[in-house]
Amino acid sequence: MAALLALSGAVLWGVGDFLGGLAARRLALLTVLAVSQAIGLAGVAMWAVLSDDPFPGAVELLPAAGAGLAGIVGLAALYRGMAVGAMGIVAPISAAGPVVPLAFDAANGVVPDPLQWLGVGLVLTGVVILSREPPSGDGNRLAAGVGLALVAALAFGTFFVGLDAGADESVPWAVVAVRTTSVLAALAVLALTGGSLRPPRGLVLMLVGIGVFDTGANVAFAAASTEGAIGIVAVLSSLYPVVTVALAWVVLREQLSVTRRSAGVLALAGAALVAAG
Question: I need a labelling partner for 41 at 20 to 30 A (CA). Which of 68, 171, 183, 226 fits?
Fold first, then answer.
């Protein structure tokens, strides 16, 4: 059951990220984030109420609130990166996030095992290959969206650390804290920039889909973590870019060279090894 839930979470995250990148190509990024996150908040709030978990307290949920800020930064960078660059390049790089919790553990005296070190090596190798444009008259340069993908990876890794700390108190309420913070942050920036919360009618369904898929992934991941070993759950859930890249290939006809496809596989395999440690 844990494996099925974790794989379901990966599929849901992959579809949600694809829709998010697609929406960011047609609509202001802040509108995409604010509306989709608000829809997700409504879903997780209902889940928390139905779970009958006691509210642990605001102070106890501060790490989850911090995770919410990191998460909204990560989503903004990921969606924008996929809007300006190839999803097949940006999505696998963003999956390097598990390196951050690994570094956090190492700083606290938890030494990575050999498989994790191998995973770090694979992630870095894949990222370097994916990041470089083919040689031209001006030499090599960074591919479009790579910088944003690296920001997303760093932010997602920070998100994992904060959510893990908050989930020790209550998984449902930690997710609510994450979403509440991300929604408030998106709305605050939207207000400061004078953006609009009223998307075109033709994109409303897509924004609802982003919120529903992302919320469903959070619920599936949380449920999976209570059913089985967190290492296995993390490994299977980290496969979400495979879904995003597959959708980009089928729907957008996005083409990547054999070298870049191989680099994407390396990056994802490395992320899986890091998460499994």
Answer: 226
